[in-house]
Amino acid sequence: MKRGLMAATAVVGMLVGVTACGSGGGTKTGADGFQGQKLTVWVMNGSNPERWTEQVSAQFKKKTGATVEFKVQQWNGIQQKLSTALSEDTPPDVVEIGNTQTAAYAKAGALAELGDLKKEIGADWNEAFNKASLVDEKQYALPWFAGNRVVMYNKKVWAEAGLKGTPRTRSELFKAFDTIKKKTDAEPLYLPGQNWYFFDGLTLGTGADLVKRQGGKWVSNLGDPKVAKAMDIYRQYQAFSTAPKNKDEATPQQAEVFAKGRTGALIAMGYEAATALKANPKMKKDIGFFTIPGETADKPEGVFLGGSNFAVAGMGKNQELAKEFLKVALSKQNDRQMVKESGWAPKSPDLADAAQQNPAVAAAAPAAEESGGTTPLIPQWAAVENIPNPIKSYMTAVLSGKSPADAARDIEPEINARLAKQ
């Protein structure tokens, strides 16, 4: 999943009247009692890697006698399409949902509860990974994968600047960027002004909340001094970059900029290395990764854990078979395959060995475990991520010279209006 493109819409209103009753689906005589049946699973374009898909399909058929059909969906218009599908009498059996969007669908009654299944197969999952699957302390989805940003750097550029090793604190990182600026013709860092998931991670590091409860409703907390502190850290990063202040990391794709070979570093997801190498295969030996360092060496920078959950349609007729699929798809073996094949962070200690086989995952893991988190896990949050994202507008305003307090004051009415939608 391309996290920078993970826009959401307010789905609660679209799904009024949907209840997570379902039929429980189908008679069976054990896990192998579904001979000849077919399960439909919606996944987003790019989410299910080839080897993982082959492995899961074969294991599922062997275990249940049923087949699974993966239907790949495109990001454009997916929220409307998924909302409609989940409200119909014959929805897809299992759906991939962005982890910041799960609460909205659950609150609308569109998802089946999976608490017992979580206890059976996910007792040791990292709490930060699972948190986005919970709504009112009930389990309405199961975490499939998640990842967080790391520093992806050009070893060749760093060597030209005489840099050795990797920084362990934020100040050391900024000194490295300054050295690249002074000693090479490369841009130290490519960071557009609206990489808001990186900004969200910084707010986690300062202990800030983007929303707060006031007068019985959720309202913006963008004016909090802790948010301003996070934005100031972002401003210090962005000062090393000539990237546009009014664009995000997908406009243009920052990995393609990196592929030109004269950028010192990106704040990137691990999978962006593949994008860079597709554009410039000769860079393979030049790409390295390290954890985004925090203020002190003992704690990494706060990071947003972006990813996807698997959920079972509340109106689905094959819920028992859907649960058997999840047992297979989210087994240790198949989770390990996802980590190795796609570079996502491990969600349990048993997957640490797989993480070490992927340099990007190994670099991401310390922050995921110690400093990872998500956007506010409330149903109303989905509307805030809608295009145009008001938090991106706030970031551009501050980077263009407006004070954080004034920028927040200008943007908060729009955020509050979105949070008020039910």
Helices and strands in order:
Elements: E1 38-44, H1 50-64, E2 67-73, H2 78-86, E3 94-98, H3 102-107, H4 115-121, H5 127-130, E4 134-135, E5 138-139, E6 142-147, E7 150-154, H6 155-160, H7 170-183, H8 196-206, E8 211-214, E9 217-220, H9 225-238, H10 254-258, E10 265-268, H11 272-279, E11 287-290, E12 303-304, E13 306-312, H12 319-329, H13 332-342, H14 352-356, H15 359-371, E14 372-373, H16 381-384, H17 390-399, H18 404-419
Parallel strand pairs: 1-2, 1-3, 12-14
Antiparallel strand pairs: 3-13, 4-5, 6-13, 7-10, 7-11, 8-9
Helix pairs in contact: 1-12, 1-13, 8-9, 17-18
Fold and architecture overview:
With 422 residues, the protein is of the alpha/beta class. Helix content is 40%, strand content 14%. It has 18 helices and 14 strands. It has helices at residues 50-64, 78-86, 102-107, 115-121, 127-130, 155-160, 170-183, 196-206, 225-238, 254-258, 272-279, 319-329, 332-342, 352-356, 359-371, 381-384, 390-399, 404-419; strands at 38-44, 67-73, 94-98, 134-135, 138-139, 142-147, 150-154, 211-214, 217-220, 265-268, 287-290, 303-304, 306-312, 372-373. The protein is globular, with a radius of gyration of 22 Å.
Number of helices: 18
Number of strands: 14
Give the low-pLDDT segments: 1-12, 19-27
Q: Helicity, in percent?
A: 40-55%
User: In what range is the share of β-strand residues?
Assistant: 5-15%
Shape: globular
Radius of gyration: 22 Å
Q: How would you state the average pLDDT, rounded?
A: 90
Structural classification: alpha/beta
Main sheet: strand order: 2-1-3-13-6
Largest sheet: 5 strands, mixed
Q: Report, as a whole number of angstroms, the end-to-end distance.
A: 27 Å
